C-alpha cells in the first residue's frame, strides 16, 4: 500500500476468483455526496468490474450508499462511474482486456491525499483446481506458522 493511502474498501473475493496479472491506479469521477459517503466507509466492490467503452473506462457494479444527511439530489448507489486514466493506459487496457479470459476488476478503493483512487487489476479467471491449490497453500502456510510459533514458545 502506498504511504499516505487510507483504505476505504477492498475486493478480497477478487483474489480468490482471479489471478492478478497487473495492477493500475486510476482516479474516479464522483459526485459531491459520494465523497462524503466514502469518508464514512460506505462502499462495496463486490461484483464490480470495469469496461473499456470507446475512449473511456467505466466502472460498473460498485455500490456507494447514499449519504445519510444528503437531500433529494443524492446520487444513485449503483450508477456507472468513469475512471480517470491517461489515453495510452486506456488503449493498453483495451488491448489486454480483449484477450480471451482477461477482465478488469477493481481490487481496492482508497484515499490518496484528498483524492479517491481505485486499484484496478488486469485479471484472468481461476478454475476450480487453482482455487483448491490456493486454499491448500494458505492452509499449509498457516499451519507452518503456528508450528513455528509454538516451537518458539517452548
What would you say this structure looks like, in words?
The chain is an alpha+beta fold and 154 residues long. It has a single domain (5-126), classed as Beta Barrel (Small Protein B, Chain: A). The protein has helices at 12-17, 32-39, 87-97, 128-153; strands spanning 5-10, 18-28, 43-44, 49-53, 56-60, 63-64, 81-84, 102-112, 115-125. The model has no long low-confidence stretch (mean pLDDT 88).
Order of helices and strands: EHEHEEEEEHEEH
Radius of gyration: 18 Å
Structural class determined from secondary elements: alpha+beta
With strands numbered from the N-terminus, the spatial order across the biggest sheet is: 1-8-9-2-7-5-4
Outline the biggest β-sheet: 7 strands, antiparallel
Number of domains: 1
CATH topological fold name: Small Protein B, Chain: A
Overall pLDDT level: 88
Q: Helicity range of the residues?
A: 25-40%
